[in-house]
Amino acid sequence: MKCFFDVGYRHGAALPWFQSAYGIDETWSIYCFEPNPANHDRFQSASHFVNFRVAAWTHDGFVEIAQHDAGDGQGDGEASSIIDDWRHPGMTRRLRVPCIDFAEWLVRLTSPMDYVVVKLDIEGAEYAVCRRLLTTFAITRIDVLHVEFHHRFMTSENEQSTSALRLELQRFTEVIDHW
């Protein structure tokens, strides 16, 4: 089976690029993860799409996200983050959302024989999620990991920690920064 995980779906804007680059079509299983309720109406609906209205994280439960404030106290469909030390302007609205242990779900949804491509763009949470993928060895289920590292918006990560994490991930899978 071929599987694509769009983790940090947001508007779904990256999906056409991945469909073109990997030949993703209706024969693939597509799993989309997006915690921001302002984006849930943008999920695609087709038999090969499974949409999760949750944050990909390191455990199952609930977590608070910082969401862009649309200026009227309401959140908008722009980026959101669950990271406490997130330093991105305008992310002032707080919202409690469900979260899942992404490593555990990845293992549940795939088999070692599957071809798995993951896009991970989760506004700082990629560090904890990638480290969880490594400690659980769920990383071995991923053939290609496209990840956008956001250390520039964080106080707890930097270029050195990002390089070290990237090297550790590359021991198990192909890692592509962004797309």
What is shown here, in short?
With 179 residues, the chain is an alpha/beta fold. The protein has a single domain, classed as NAD(P)-binding Rossmann-like Domain (Rossmann fold, 3-Layer(aba) Sandwich).
Salient structural properties:
179 residues; alpha/beta; Rossmann fold; six-stranded parallel beta sheet; 33% strand
**Helix/strand structural class:** alpha/beta
Provide the helix percentage: 10-25%
**Number of distinct helices:** 4
Taking strands numbered 1, 2, ... along the chain, how are they ordered across the largest sheet? Answer: 3-2-1-8-9-10
CATH superfamily: NAD(P)-binding Rossmann-like Domain
Shape: globular
Mean pLDDT: 87
Number of strands: 10
H and E string: EHEEEEEEHEHEHE
The second-level CATH architecture is 3-Layer(aba) Sandwich
Question: How would you characterize the largest beta sheet?
Answer: 6 strands, parallel
And the CATH topology? Answer: Rossmann fold
The whole-angstrom Rg is: 16 Å
- Give unreliable regions as ranges: none
> How big a fraction of the residues is strand?
25-35%
* Terminal Cα span: 23 Å
The total domain count is: 1
CATH class: Alpha Beta
